[in-house]
Structures are given as C-alpha cells and as structure tokens.
Design brief:
This protein is α/β, with parallel strands linked by helices. It folds into 2 domains: 20-321, Rossmann fold (3-Layer(aba) Sandwich), CATH 3.40.50; 330-424. It is built from 15 helices and 10 strands. α2 (44-57) packs parallel to α7. 42% of the residues are buried. Residues 1-14, 31-41, 70-84 and 242-246 have low confidence and may be disordered.
C-alpha cells in the first residue's frame, strides 16, 4: 500500500510540474500601399488578442507581441473605390491603433520588433521543460526572397533555399517604419532548440510562403507545425466585412487557433473590445457548421481542410513526404492566366492517384470524373478571359475573373474531397509517435 501511495504521489507531482507556455506574435504591412485591398476593419490585432486571451483563459503563461504603429499611410496612393484614399487610410490607421492599444494595455503586449521577438523566443526556450505544453501562434506577413530580391508567387519553389530563395517574415521597425526580417533559418533554429527542451510544441504559422520551412521541421519528435500555405503561395485567413473579403470561409489556421479559445467565447464577448471582432463569430459558426474541431492538430487539420476552397495548400509538418494535389498551383495559374489542361493536372497528381487505388473503384472513378469536369469548366473560363483581354472588354474581364475564381475554388474543393478519401483509406500514413496526433 505504501509503494502504491508513493507511486501515486510521484506521478501526481510530475504531472503538476508541467507548465503551459504561449507566444503569440502579430504584425501588419509596412505601408498602406501594400494593404490597399484589405478592409478598413482589418483584423490582425483581433486575431492576436483573441488567441492570447484564449490561451490565458486555458491556463497558459502568454507573451504577446504586436505592432501596427509605424505604418506609412500618407506616402501611399489608394485607388480603392469604397473610400477616398486619405479617408480610408485614416480609418484603417484608427482601427489598427485601437487594436494596438488594447494589446499593449490589456494584454501587456510589447512591440513586435526583431529584438523583442528573438528575446521572447529565447525566454521561451529557457523556461520550457520536458512535457511542458508550448503553443506558438505567429500571424506574420511572410515573403519569399530569391537571389536577394522579393518575389511574389514562384511555382517552382517547394522549400527553403531552393533556387536561391528564402522565406522571411517582416517585423516593423518603429523608428524607420520599414521591415526588419526574421529569416526562415533563424526561426527553424529556434524551434529546433525549443524541441530539444523536451516540451510538447504546437506551432501555428499563419503566414504566406510558410511551407518553405516544412521540410526543415519534419521529423522533430516534439514539434507539430501547421503551415498556412506552400512555399510558393500566399495565405488567407478570416476577413471581417469589407469587399472583397466578405467570405463565409475561414482558414485552417483560424480553426486550429479556435481550439484554444472556443470554450471561452462567451466570457471574451463580455469585453467591449471583442464585441467588435466579427471574425470570432464567423470562425465559431464555420467550426460548428463544418464540424472542424478535434482533439489534436491532426484531426483539426483534416476536418478543416475538407471544406477549404482557397488556393493555398495548408499542411502540417508530419505530411512532408506525402504527395498532395494542388500544392499552391492554382493561385499562380489564376494570376498569370495560364491554362491547365486535364492531362497536366493528371500528371501533377499521378502519385497521389496511385495511392488512391485501394479505394472502391466506382467511388474513385466518380470523384475523378467530377474533378475533370470542374477542371474543364475552369479551363473554359481561362480561355474566355484571355479572349476578353484581347477584346479589351473590361466588363467581361471583371465578370470572368469572378467566375474563374469561383470555378477554381470548385476544383480545389474537389481536390480536398479526393485527398480526404486518400486519408480515410489509410493511404496517408504517419508515425504512431507523430506529435501532430497527440491530444491538445
């Protein structure tokens, strides 16, 4: 009896020793010109605040970094039709200051500078112990630099340092109003040091081009990392209300973050700040309608991805060796108005289709037929759009662009269904010790 009691006491003591630590970082574009298409009630600050508060309510010791001050509105020209440039810039500036002040005063947040980011991460590494639960949420503007120059979407790039390209995310320097950069290599090295502490780390990297470091983080036994997009593509999240962002859709990353504050929404809504946060309700409604939640990053990822119709390719670190279909291909195609024929798509997904061979043939055939039909519609829209451009028919171009975006989303949705079948069939395999499968 004494030995049993001693074992229970030791077990209880060890369990009580595990801590919960969180780091939430967010920032915005450096000038109004780079965010001219975004709504005046842009929600970066709300995302940072809701996730930080959710972690705090869940018992995490949280460090929060956020900055919007330093945005250079006056030097940018705005062609937006909803508000005159100066008025729109001032409205956005006021809104971002409102979010910034809340994080600074209520959450004791510090500016998201490079020095503060590196110090916060180093402090996290110093504090973390074996079996501690660590959540790192990064809402940053990611960039792809190739041979020293910033580029947009580059379909050939699949990973960091390929073709002279490197992933970086920008943090505003409040003195210059310009970006200072954290490279993917720096971030990877810090995450690896955090992994060496033995803590259980969940990383939610909601950033354009974030998949560039997916391969670098695969195989770390204590780290589950989510990437909002592939290396060659941009990322999307919830938009509040202004066109063109009024979509019912919210991102897979939003749904992962939601896990940590979903049980505290009613309490958060009592705060006047969160009454202005329309994305909180949108994310919750989307989660409930599509049953996105689960007990692990792995479950939430697959539940959310099934309903994802946006052109980025969300992924998690344990899937790096598995071929998925689009891998960010569609956004580049839409932007450059290049046609995808059915055969080209079949070549791109050939390896995945081989893995699908274990699924009942009739079901597979039906799914493939549906996907090919959607690709045919997409191709017709692309060709019509090219003709409209030749004819200089602006009204037709705008109409066709909207239609093309919609049919492209239909193709992507069909791809999500196919890959979900692949997962459900057991053909996508990961290690039994996959950190993305542990309970969160």
């Amino acid at each position: 009896m004494g030995l049993r009691l001693l074992f229970f006491c030791l077990f209880f003591f060890n369990q009580a020793e595990a801590a919960r630590l969180g780091l939430v970082v967010g920032g915005v574009a450096k000038s109004y010109g780079t965010i001219g298409a975004l709504p005046t009630d842009h929600e970066f600050g709300y995302a940072v605040a809701r996730n930080a508060r959710g972690l705090e309510e869940s018992g995490y010791e949280v460090t929060t970094l956020f900055d919007s001050v330093g945005m250079n509105f006056e030097s940018s020209k705005d062609t937006d039709s909803f508000l005159p440039g100066v008025a729109r810039a001032k409205k956005l500036q006021e809104n971002m200051k409102f979010q910034h002040d809340y994080i600074k005063n209520e959450l004791k947040g510090k500016p998201a500078t490079v020095n503060n980011f590196e110090k916060a991460f180093d402090d996290l590494i110093a504090k973390a112990k074996p079996n501690d639960e660590v959540v790192v949420d990064l809402f940053m503007h990611g960039h792809l630099f190739c041979n020293g120059k910033q580029v947009g979407i580059k379909p050939s790039v699949k990973s960091n340092h390929q073709d002279g390209c490197e992933y970086k995310f920008g943090l505003l320097n409040p003195e210059t109003g310009d970006y200072d950069y954290i490279t993917g290599s720096i971030l990877t090295n810090k995450i690896k040091k955090l992994n060496d502490t033995g803590a259980k780390i969940n990383l939610n990297l909601q950033s354009c081009h974030s998949g560039a470091i997916q391969q670098d983080l695969s195989g770390l036994k204590n780290v589950c990392a989510f990437f909002a997009s592939s290396a060659n593509n941009v990322a999307w999240g919830c938009f509040p209300s202004d066109p063109p962002g009024d979509l019912s859709y919210t991102s897979v990353g939003d749904q992962i973050s939601y896990h940590y504050y979903k049980d505290h929404i009613e309490k958060l809504k009592q705060d006047p700040f969160f009454k202005k946060d329309s994305c909180m309700d949108k994310i919750r409604d989307y989660a409930e309608a599509n049953k996105t939640q689960g007990s692990s990053f792995y479950e939430i990822f697959w539940n959310s991805r099934l309903h994802d119709r946006m052109p980025e390719e969300p992924s998690i670190s344990s899937l790096v060796q598995n071929p998925l279909f689009t891998m960010g291909h569609f956004a580049a195609t839409i932007n450059s108005l290049e046609e995808i024929c059915v055969r080209e798509m079949e070549v791109e997904i050939e390896n995945s289709l081989q893995l699908l061979s274990g699924i009942q043939k009739n079901n597979l055939s039906l799914l493939l037929k549906e996907m090919k039909a959607k690709i045919d519609i997409y191709n017709k829209n692309i060709l019509d759009q090219k003709q409209a451009i030749k004819d200089r028919n602006n009204e037709a171009i705008i109409k066709l662009q909207r239609e093309t975006e919609e049919v492209a989303r239909n193709v992507i949705q069909q791809e999500r269904i196919l890959v979900n079948e692949l997962n459900n069939s057991g053909r996508i395999t990961t290690s039994p010790d996959d950190p993305c499968k542990r309970k969160i």
